[in-house]
Amino acid sequence: MRKAEISIKLDDETVKILYMSLLPETKSTIAPDSKVEISLRPRGEVFLSIRANTTSTLRALINAYLLWIHSIVEMLKGV
């Protein structure tokens, strides 16, 4: 199984919003052989652990989560 870990450090409020926004997405994934876990860490950090059986599935999940993260952060900048 392939694995990727992503750590995002931002201000505390943005991290909480990011965590709450992504949490529902981790309950189901695009492939049955994959798993995404998210955790909220101290000092403004969100940590993602992504696992998949194939490299292409892992890449798709990484791209999807990074796009969601980018979109959420950009949207919050405009608020």
Account of the 3D structure:
- The protein has 79 residues and is an alpha+beta fold.
- The protein has 2 helices and 3 strands, in the order βαββα.
- The protein has a 3-stranded antiparallel β-sheet.
- Strand 2 and strand 3 (45-52) form a beta hairpin.
- Helix 1 (12-22) packs across helix 2 (55-77).
- The chain is elongated.
Given as residue ranges, the uncertain stretches (5+ residues, pLDDT < 50) are none
Helix-strand makeup class: alpha+beta
Overall pLDDT: 94
**Helix amount:** 40-55%
Rg calc: 13 Å
Q: What strand line-up does the widest sheet have?
A: 1-3-2
Instruction: Please tally the helical runs, counting DSSP H or I stretches of 4 or more residues.
Output: 2
Pattern of helices and strands: EHEEH
Strand content: 25-35%
Total DSSP E strands: 3
Largest sheet: 3 strands, antiparallel
Please state the overall shape, judged from the principal axes of the Cα atoms: elongated
Distance from first to last alpha carbon: 40 Å
Oligomeric state of the chains in view: single chain
Summed up:
The chain is α+β, with helices and mostly antiparallel strands.
Offer a few descriptive terms.
79 residues; alpha+beta; three-stranded antiparallel β-sheet; 2 helices
